[in-house]
Amino acid sequence: SRYATYPSLKDKVVFITGGATGIGASVVEHFCAQGSKVTFVDIAEDAGNALVDRIATDGFAVPTFVPGDLTDVERLGAVIAEVGDKQGPVGVLVNNAGNDDRHLTPDVDRAYWDDRIAVNLRHQFFAAQAVYPQMKAAGGGSIVNFGSISWKDGEGNCPVYLASKAAVTGMSRGLAREFGPYNIRVNIVVPGWVMTERQLALW
Q1: Virtual CA dihedral for 72, 73, 77, 79, nearest 10 degrees?
Q2: Which residues are annotated as catalytic?
Q3: Is residue 181 classed as helix, strand or coil in its secondary structure?
Q4: Where are the alpha helices (DSSP H) in 139-180?
């Protein structure tokens, strides 16, 4: 096998945001390789369907792909509730979706600001809110939020992205304190520059 085996992940219900490409696609693939029951949401419909086909060809547990815009947090919550009803309580939430388009401060209007915060931060909070009652009732769970090293390094040309990713750290620490008594872990993954197809193509 290409992967280490973690028996505790077999049949675990896993929900992943932004799972069609890049880091998210790798997260989906690795959970499927462990036999987890994976559902992922992404706006990139063609890429999401292609990932499902590839994983099926590899012989892993086949994930469920739900095309959707994560800025619609009401629908996101409804999808999470449906997963809980059909597959059992979500045991792992991976908040991966984000967008690091480059921009300069003079070019940012309120609409751009609101959209970037919605893509990089807001959905993480509301996805955590949606899985919380499922995990609490089940006696625990794990929430993994993707941050970024970029705000600590002070990278240029993306101030709104840096602001949103810095906020992920504060939000995650607050959620960890609130959810911890119910055996719900909240952790942050803080990647450096990962050479995904998007990164290689654009920068």
Answers
A1: 20
A2: 161
A3: helix
A4: 150-153, 159-179
> What is the Cβ-side half-sphere exposure of residue 5, based on CA atoms within 13 angstroms?
5
Q: What is the per-residue pLDDT across 31-73, written as a single tens digit (0 to 9) for each? A: 999 999 999 999 999 999 999 999 999 999 999 999 999 999 9
Sign of torsion over alpha carbons 151, 156, 159, 161: negative
Task: Parse the chain into domains and list their residue ranges.
Answer: 7-202
pLDDT above 50: residue 200: no
* Six token digits for residue 109: 């209007």
Q: Encoding tokens for residue 101? A: 């388009």
Query: What residues contact 78, with CB distance under 8 A and at least 6 apart?
Result: none
Pairing of strands 184-189, 141-146: parallel
CATH for the stretch 7-202: 3.40.50.720
pTM of the predicted model, to two decimals? Answer: 0.91
DSSP states of 14-30: EEEES-SSHHHHHHHHH
Secondary structure (3-state) at 143:
strand
**DSSP 3-state of 93:** strand
